[in-house]
Amino acid sequence: MTSSLLLAAGLSATVDTPDIDDTTSFWRWDFAWEVLPTMLSSFLQVTLLVTVVGTIIASALGLVIAIMIRLLPRPLAWLVEWIANFIRMTPIVVQLLIVFYGFVWMEPMTIALIVYGVHYSTYMSEVYRAGIDSVPRGQWEASTALSMSPGRTWRRVIIPQALRSTVPSLGNYAISMFKDTPFLIAISVMEMVTTALEIGGFTYRYIETITIAGVIFLVASYFTAVLVNRLEKRLAYAH
């Protein structure tokens, strides 16, 4: 049964689905080339967007959480730490569903950006905490001796040194976010793997679509790792 028969039965695809009658061949290059633009479009419009915006939110919010835990009075720091631990220890798909059904007026894509950013900020806050703790005590004492204000000490001394040792771990979490995007199917957001499954459902050809999704994930993760490696070397050279 091909997509035309499914369409005749009242089922419709949300993405462009080629009509193909061959369901016996293991691999069809013409089919793979035909679905590639749709897969790339889904990757750019959803998977990459959620990962990039989510990483920006997580990087900024994670640093704020790490600094709050270190500077706030103990009861407030404990409260922030408890909330971060609660979010970190709860599956992201559960958080997506809670926000999706609890805030029905929000667009699913907006929910995805917020939930992924907040969820991964709790992991990144631990990375920042370890980086801040690794700054030698003498750096704090030297800043005090030079009469530097607390704000300037953090901006010019502590954070730059902490970032240098945390970039590789932050990059790993960005790659993990790439691989967690298929959970978006829980809130009806059509990311790349969901698109691959939908095309496969209408053509009965899954091998090409799933393989293309895997290759795109691999290429995206590789370039992310290369970018993180270059950033790490640049920070090491700058300091």
UniProtKB/TrEMBL annotation:
<dbReference type="InterPro" id="IPR000515">
    <property type="entry name" value="MetI-like"/>
</dbReference>
<dbReference type="Pfam" id="PF00528">
    <property type="entry name" value="BPD_transp_1"/>
</dbReference>
<protein>
    <submittedName>
        <fullName>Polar amino acid transport system permease protein</fullName>
    </submittedName>
</protein>
<dbReference type="InterPro" id="IPR035906">
    <property type="entry name" value="MetI-like_sf"/>
</dbReference>
<dbReference type="InterPro" id="IPR014341">
    <property type="entry name" value="Ectoine_EhuD"/>
</dbReference>
<keyword id="KW-1133">Transmembrane helix</keyword>
<keyword id="KW-1003">Cell membrane</keyword>
<keyword id="KW-0812">Transmembrane</keyword>
<feature type="transmembrane region" description="Helical">
    <location>
        <begin position="100"/>
        <end position="119"/>
    </location>
</feature>
<dbReference type="InterPro" id="IPR010065">
    <property type="entry name" value="AA_ABC_transptr_permease_3TM"/>
</dbReference>
<comment type="similarity">
    <text>Belongs to the binding-protein-dependent transport system permease family.</text>
</comment>
<keyword id="KW-0813">Transport</keyword>
<feature type="transmembrane region" description="Helical">
    <location>
        <begin position="210"/>
        <end position="228"/>
    </location>
</feature>
<feature type="domain" description="ABC transmembrane type-1">
    <location>
        <begin position="44"/>
        <end position="228"/>
    </location>
</feature>
<keyword id="KW-0472">Membrane</keyword>
<feature type="transmembrane region" description="Helical">
    <location>
        <begin position="42"/>
        <end position="69"/>
    </location>
</feature>
<keyword id="KW-0029">Amino-acid transport</keyword>
<dbReference type="InterPro" id="IPR043429">
    <property type="entry name" value="ArtM/GltK/GlnP/TcyL/YhdX-like"/>
</dbReference>
